[in-house]
């Protein structure tokens, strides 16, 4: 009997530690990825930009653009994956074997889609300045730049579909199990809608997604995730 209690306590401690590691990863992801919005978004070429306008966008501060949108994004990607893995563990533990654990699986799939398409968009967006910085004999082609920026923007639109699924599945599971506070679960549905509408409100949709990850990460760090005692007891009975 004593061994069972000890093993149960050990598993609970391991779960808490994993959640805290994931929360730290989520915070670091947000911190490292915010500069990409600051550097890459405000002065982005609009639909009326001419050839010189799109060249000027990258001509000034190519090094800083590559650092904030490229180098920092590599580390942001690394920490995001740790966050998603830990969050899936928390959700899967709360959901148990009920209905095959499909909500926690949907959250993981949504998170992976978001991470993959988001950083594919980053890679496409920095393709021109990276080539410009690396090869001295490179002759810029404005049409290719326009195409790469358009492709990157659509990858960002599609990646937020993954965010919407991640947040929606997490919110549904939170309402059912209490794995996250009820207020965050309800707010999550608003976040899911805004991220899904990223094609219409790109900056707002992206920022609320980052804010949601930051809030969930903080809760994971301070240990405020997990099923409530009442619901856990009801599930056991």
Task: Write a structural description.
- The two termini are 20 Å apart.
- The protein is mainly alpha-helical.
- The radius of gyration is 21 Å and the shape is elongated.
- It has one domain.
- The longest helix is centred in the N-terminal third of the chain and has 39 residues, at 2-40.
- The chain has 9 helices and no strands.
- Helix 3 (62-95) crosses helix 5 (127-134) and helix 4 (102-125) packs antiparallel against helix 6 (142-177).
Please tally the helical runs, counting DSSP H or I stretches of 4 or more residues: 9
**Main beta-sheet strand count, sense and barrel state:** none
Radius of gyration: 21 Å
Helix amount = over 70%
In terms of DSSP E residues, the strand content is under 5%
The separation of the N and C termini measures: 20 Å
Class based on secondary structure composition and strand pairing: mainly alpha
The average pLDDT is 84
* Low-confidence blocks of residues: 1-10, 228-237
Q: How many beta-strand elements?
A: 0
Overall geometry comes to elongated
Q: What is the element string, with H for helices and E for strands? A: HHHHHHHHH
- What's the domain count? 1
Topology:
Elements: H1 2-40, H2 51-59, H3 62-95, H4 102-125, H5 127-134, H6 142-177, H7 182-196, H8 202-222, H9 229-236
Short description:
The chain is mainly alpha-helical and 237 residues long. The protein has nine helices and no strands.
